[in-house]
Amino acid sequence: MRLVSCVLAAGLLLGASACGGSSEKTAQQPSSPFAYDRSSSLNFADHGRANSAYPIAVRDVSYQSGRDRVSAYLVLPQHPRGRLPAAIYLHGSGGDRTQFVAQAAWLAGRGAIALVLTAPSSTQQAAASTPLDELRREVKLTERDVVAVRRGVDLLSKRDDVDPKRIGFVGWSAGARTGAVLAGVEPRFRALVLMSGGASPVASYAAAAPQNLRRSITRSLTPVDPLRYVGRSHAALLLQDGRRDSIVPRAALEGIVHAAPTGTDVRWYQAQHGLNVRAYRDQLAWLTQKLRITGPPVTGAATGP
Asked: Is 62 helix (H, G, I), strand (E, B) or coil?
């Protein structure tokens, strides 16, 4: 909820949460705020196993994404066979890589590999000097978060145990907003799950601000607007939202629903912002189908809630 907090403090705009990315450029996309140099080194490091006595290994890893050193957990069966599907999990605002380890382990128990990230925006605490500067800082964090996930795709694609044509994404809350952008800018995803993600039109944010700030707000927010990108997705999309969500307004949840491509799978649950067991079971079944996870299930490992 950081972007909302900074604009509310300024009295500039009202809406749902936002999240981050990076501004490195590639020759293919020189004008994109989410472009980066894919040839740059990931400087991947494996710091060892973080769990024990369980058939799914959780390895403490990190890699480079622009200026950011991204901490992550690599979650995988202890003895993977062949090239497996994979998915990247991204937490909500203020969270970290611990938030979705259990969910990633359920997917790994079905015969897949998962990468669970801590977004760069979650490790940044310094505030800017003015509310408008803070808004611009948050926009840059949005860019850095998006690129951190794209670098995660680079990492998975280089692994001998991952099928690069079967990579998915799961994001919750602010992570779902990041996922809505990724749907339009990262063509390597085969399927994306966006949980409890909302966005309102940039025009509505600007309209709530003083007249002299509206142009600056529009100029800052438009390049990272999730509604601008989610409709461009060529990957399969599953949107999961709670009818009793008290964190993200219903209109913002519906904003992403309406902006998504025709044919998007949209499911509403009698649940709050964190959703419920049924949502996670639906999500696992959907990912199993879309990523063609064929197993066999890992002996002794849970494959769902």
From this structure: strand
